[in-house]
Write a structure and sequence with these properties.
The complex is a heterodimer of chains A (161) and B (480).
Chain A: H1 3-19, H2 38-59, E1 65-68, E2 72-76, E3 79-83, E4 86-89, H3 97-111, E5 120-125, E6 128-134, E7 140-145, E8 150-155, E9 159-160
Antiparallel strand pairs in A: 1-4, 2-3, 3-9, 4-8, 5-6, 6-7, 7-8
Helix pairs in contact in A: 2-3
Chain B: H1 10-40, H2 46-90, H3 127-136, H4 139-148, H5 150-155, H6 161-180, E1 187-188, E2 191-192, H7 194-215, E3 219-225, E4 232-237, E5 245-250, H8 260-283, E6 291-297, H9 312-331, E7 336-342, H10 344-355, E8 361-365, E9 384-387, H11 393-397, E10 411-413, H12 430-433, E11 437-438, E12 441-442, H13 447-454, H14 462-471
Parallel strand pairs in B: 5-6, 5-7, 7-8, 8-9, 9-10
Antiparallel strand pairs in B: 1-2, 3-4, 4-6, 11-12
The chains are: A alpha+beta (161), B alpha/beta (480).
């Protein structure tokens, strides 16, 4: 076995150990006993999502909001995670970076009121953008835009039922 | 076993079935023991490597196949016994025992022009043939099959996903019951009995699968196979039979259905990936298109850092994954089907895409290679995507015939950290310290390298966004 081959073998072997972490992903770091109930947290997230929709509507008063899918919940051990439906509106925020930046700036100004950190860019392309904010419980609020619509949705961390 | 049983004694048939099942389980245990011995033997060098490859690729598979055949035969014996009883009951008991004719389930016809019978698809049928066989059955025959042999239906590629889900949920209960009634001795002589450990693992895995399904009603159970001593399973979110876009995700080293937390965590990952894919569709005004994601754990994935260096388990797994994909295609002909492979699972996916023509797209991430170039990979030009974090030692290794990111025709997609979210800077000197792993022991790996290899499907990441974009064919939304 040549040294380069051995090196590659060892590197590949590292994959196995690395894969261990696939089994060790836990949302958030706060103690479970301190967590709000799933009902409390979804009320808070719903309110924040409504505020985000309002910010978009302020830029696009004619935009109409609709919902895609339904909220779903899954038990995580003794706790529950909720994934919201997707709210979407025909607002071409992707094509208007100035309007997009205003929405994000205002969203960041209020994110803390709902326990979220600032929205951060996940990706920006010619036809779309995606901003995500997280909270201490492992929850995420998504504000994304495609070539046609803006979407708002969230997934919570694990919370007691 | 479809040719009928003449003059059979029902009790003897059932005894024979039990014998066959016991033998199949013993064969599985022997295979597991031998595989462990082959792996652990202090034997190095070319001869050792060759023998281990032969063992994985041929001998272990032959034992597995023999065990599966015994299980199949046991199922056929039980069905024949039931048919015998039904025939006897219909004749007022006059034909019970010797002299009675039977075989099959007693259901009329069966199989039609596609062969097989009302109890089994044709032997060695392809997924497409199975789908045609299923279509040829009457509602009554289907219901009887669901009642009589849910295990066979649930693991057979080409059966609609909705049927497989129903069958597997039923099989889950009967299998748990069977296992609980069939506890092997804890000790084999003075040593612990490996069959007992395997039995315990199977029960715990099945109970965990049941808990996950109960916890998340949106999941379906597309595969549940216990014939090989392990529990193989596939979980899905969305309607695989009708979805416009289906992703099939295959994991790598250490993925194990016995790992309760891991299965639950990965189920969450596919749910999040599906939601991101939906968001992409809705954002682009394609909200009328539908999605489904499958977490496929239907192969014997490497469980140690020696096995992962060889492709024997990938080759065996690829054949199964190819068949599974063919089954999706057979039922949902027009779907846009994507194979998603992580780490060693990317090798499985890459090989499967050579054996099957079912995939429209393939995306590999954290991949050590796919055993060659894209020449024989059955996807259209430009539909093979590679995601590799710059500090992922596995993706850098190119162990299985080269780094896939460097293959002609591969489309590289960005994994650039999201600003402010996961943009960790590599610690100084990490590249030297991180990948040092040897069969003799594991040296500590840095958090950075660990994160680089395992974070591709983390929600709110660029790589997860890109994988979702591949699944829904959103070329314009891919970040390169």
């Amino acid at each position: 076995m040549t040294p380069p081959r051995r090196s590659r073998l060892l590197a590949a072997a590292a994959a196995g150990v690395l894969a261990l972490s696939l089994t060790a992903c836990f949302p958030g770091s706060a103690e479970m006993s301190e967590r709000p109930s799933i009902d409390e947290i979804t009320r808070q997230y719903d309110a924040f999502a409504a505020e985000l929709r309002g910010l978009v509507s302020a830029e696009y008063p004619d935009a109409t909001w609709a919902e895609d899918g339904e909220a779903s919940s899954a038990l995580a051990g003794e706790d529950t995670r909720v994934t919201s439906q997707i709210w979407y509106a025909d607002a071409a925020l992707s094509a208007d970076p100035a309007a997009r930046d205003r929405v994000v700036a205002q969203a960041n100004a209020t994110a803390g009121d709902y326990g979220f950190d600032d929205f951060a860019t996940v990706e920006v392309s010619d036809d779309g953008f995606s901003y995500v904010a997280g909270d201490e419980w492992g929850g995420e609020m998504h504000l994304t835009g495609g070539s046609v619509n803006v979407t708002v949705w969230y997934v919570t961390g694990s919370h007691p039922g | 076993m479809t040719g009928g049983v003449y003059g059979a004694d029902v009790a003897q048939l059932r005894d024979a079935a039990a014998d066959f099942e016991r033998t199949a389980q013993e064969l599985g245990s022997i295979r597991a023991q031998l595989s462990g011995s082959v792996t652990r033997a202090p034997w190095r060098g070319a001869d050792a490597d060759r023998f281990r490859r032969e063992w994985d690729g041929e001998h272990a598979r032959a034992l597995t196949l023999a065990a599966q055949r015994l299980q199949d035969a046991a199922g056929a014996l039980r069905r024949n016994a039931e048919a015998q009883e039904q025939t006897s009951a219909a004749a007022g008991g006059a034909l019970s025992g010797a002299g009675a004719s039977g075989g099959g389930t007693g259901a009329p016809g069966g199989g039609g022009p596609w062969g097989g019978s009302a109890t089994h698809p044709p032997a060695d049928a392809t997924a497409a043939e199975v789908a045609r066989w299923w279509d040829s059955l009457t509602d009554e025959q289907r219901e009887r099959l669901l009642a009589d042999d849910p295990g066979m239906l649930g693991r057979t590629d080409g059966i609609p996903a909705a049927v497989r889900d129903e069958a597997n949920r039923a099989f889950l209960e009967t299998e748990l019951e069977r296992l609980r009634d069939d506890e092997p001795p804890r000790m084999a002589g003075r040593a612990p009995n490996p069959a007992w450990s395997e039995w315990q693992d199977q029960i715990e895995t099945l109970e965990n699968a049941r808990a996950i399904l109960e916890a998340d009603p949106s999941l379906s159970l597309l595969l549940l196979d216990t014939r090989d001593g392990r529990v193989e399973l596939a979980l899905a979110v969305g309607d695989v039979d009708t979805a416009d876009h289906v992703g099939v995700y295959t994991q790598g080293l250490f993925s194990n259905t016995a790992d309760a937390g891991g299965v639950q965590d990965q189920a969450q990952r596919i749910t999040e990936l599906d939601r991101t894919a939906r968001s992409l569709l809705v954002g682009d005004g394609r909200g009328d298109e539908t999605t489904a994601m499958v977490m496929w754990m239907g192969y014997d994935s490497p469980q140690n850092v020696v096995d992962v260096l060889f492709d024997g388990q990938a080759n065996a797994g690829a054949t199964r994954l190819a068949s599974f994909a063919d089954g999706i295609r057979a039922v949902n002909a027009d779907t846009h089907l994507t194979g998603l492979g992580h780490s060693y699972g990317s090798l499985v996916t890459g090989i499967a895409a050579r054996e099957s023509e079912a995939f429209d797209s393939v995306a590999v991430f954290g991949s050590p290679g796919i055993n060659g170039d894209l020449g024989e990979v059955n996807v259209d030009s430009g539909q093979f995507y590679v995601l590799a974090n710059p500090g992922d030692p596995v993706a850098l290794s190119g162990h299985f015939d080269g780094n896939p990111a460097e293959l002609d025709g591969a489309q590289r997609l960005s994994t650039a950290p999201s600003a402010g979210l996961s943009g960790k800077e590599p610690p100084s000197g990490w590249l030297v310290a991180a990948p040092l792993v040897s069969p003799l022991g594991l040296l500590p790996l840095g958090d950075y390298a660990l994160d680089q290899h395992t974070s591709y499907l983390v929600d709110k990441s660029t790589s997860q966004h890109n994988l979702a974009a591949v699944v829904v064919g959103a070329e314009d939304r891919m970040i390169r």
